[in-house]
């Protein structure tokens, strides 16, 4: 069992097999919620450059990396040490560097929502000047690919191609993560990252050479190894919600690589604007019958308010940042989540 690959231009209306491709896309996004995308137009040189700066950063001594540790940032940006991130309460064995959209801090006001603080500047490593332009360019190009793909998915659901476009708007919420998974010789567990669903609309994963990503399939797991020239696409919970439960935000995980090997990946997460509320589209009857009642997973209550949903998941993943900057709101956010359970 392997996941299908689509080329981005397969979905252009000018292609002869357009209808067939759109149908297959809908099936892939509904069944496993995971597929490969080729022909995305992002130059190999940009991707290779991103892996190069990533390797350069992770090769630095721990003390240097910790100069931009994420607990210096109320916006959850910067470096996360191996073992300090949690998925469902258990430690993930990976180190990572998180970059959001490079924007100023939102002006403080007494009635600002708690998620306003998710927006703000990044922390950039001082001694790797090549990293910032590469990361910002990759963010911009992946956002363009995401908006094309969202149009194809809208068409596949029998909607106007632009139905999801307002969710992205001018200021979508982006997160680009450079990630390194140490090998089992250096890890205390096989949990690279524990089984989870992504919170946003769409996730793209670029993989270097090493495998490890797996997606749930019934009782088992399907391996999602790197394929040259592709990125991995997966549907997030916000798009499952927006699609009326038809598109599937599936559970996935990363298994620690064997021995001395390590694994580099780059994950890009697209969310709507923080102040947006996501409401389900009205599906055609035939699709409606096969949709999932998505908002009712008691282990993972889904909030239609984007900022709250994102803050809830960041607070769970990064307890140190939560303690430092969100002590006053963490309880209220968790309670809000429980209300929706
Ligand atoms: O590193 C990967 O391949 C995927 C990571 C992932 O699933 C995540 O960070 O949400
Ligand atoms: Fe994920």
UniProtKB/TrEMBL annotation:
Keywords tagged on the record: Ethylene biosynthesis, Iron, Metal-binding, Oxidoreductase
Catalytic reaction list: 2-oxoglutarate + O2 + 2 H(+) = ethene + 3 CO2 + H2O; L-arginine + 2-oxoglutarate + O2 = guanidine + L-glutamate 5-semialdehyde + succinate + CO2
EC number assigned by the record: 1.13.12.19, 1.14.20.7
Domain Fe2OG dioxygenase as annotated: residue spans: 171-272
Cofactors demanded by this protein: Fe(2+)
Alphabetical list of Pfam families matching this protein: 2OG-FeII_Oxy, DIOX_N
Pathway(s) per entry: Alkene biosynthesis; ethylene biosynthesis via 2-oxoglutarate
Family indicated by similarity: Belongs to the iron/ascorbate-dependent oxidoreductase family.
Record PROSITE patterns: FE2OG_OXY
Protein name per Swiss-Prot or TrEMBL: 2-oxoglutarate-dependent ethylene/succinate-forming enzyme
PANTHER family: 2-OXOGLUTARATE (2OG) AND FE(II)-DEPENDENT OXYGENASE SUPERFAMILY PROTEIN-RELATED
InterPro entries: DIOX_N (IPR026992), IPNS-like_FE2OG_OXY (IPR044861), IPNS-like_sf (IPR027443), Iron_ascorbate_oxido_reductase (IPR050231), Oxoglu/Fe-dep_dioxygenase_dom (IPR005123)
